[in-house]
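Review this chain:
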Amino acid sequence: MKLYRDFDQTGLDAQYNIRARVPSFEADIARWGDKSLRAAKSLAATLDVAYGPGAAEKLDIFPAGAAAPVLVFIHGGYWRAMDKEIHRFPALGLVPAGIACVTINYALAPSVRMDEIVREVRSALAWVWRNARMFGADPDRIHVCGHSAGGHLTAMTLATDWPGFAADLPPRLVKGGMPISGIYDLEPIRLCYLNSDVRLDQAEARRNSPMFLAPRGPSWMTAALGGLEAQEFHRQQAELAAGWRSHGLDVAEITNPRDHHFDIVDRLSEPDDPLTRALVARIKAAR
């Protein structure tokens, strides 16, 4: 029986079971950790700064000089795993280009629901805007990037009514973003094996799905994914890109044909990688 689009339960679970599709995932994640340790040791950094009262509401700051633009990086893990400590590696690619990098944590499912995860990420962005000058950065040049679940959360920040979230915030708090291998319609997550932890109901999935929201304030988005990703990841990116273009947003798409889900984000650790260069160019050109 079809459960979602052309998928039965087994087929839908397989589409979103990334670790089953990429047998090297443990080595890939270990490589992220090694690079993240190198970033923390080789770059100026202030680690584990509280942006809210919760135990998970912490962020790391990698400054890049006076009045630098800021890239806030949001880790993945299907909203239920991983943390910023193994996702410091994008600073290796961005700081040498003159872009400050802030990596954030948030509370994980099943201890919290999706509404709370999204709220915490928005709180982290608000903290960066309020405090950017304290680490030499420009609060008017904030951009966001995230991988997998972090790609979903990146898109949610691009669709945020910032003054509605907090009265002191500007409408264009986030100037643009790069979601990487993201999930933008949460309905298949609600219906697949992941929901035993994420615990979405239908209404919560809908209001936290960027696919059904409009961008609010950003001037650009570049969505990226690996060519070896599952069919559903390609569909999700294509539909979000088309939908947000219809709202007038400048949307680019990047597909790296030989990359799987874990390869694609690792590229941000290299200053000369084409993906890093594309992100840097977007940030520096944004107004």
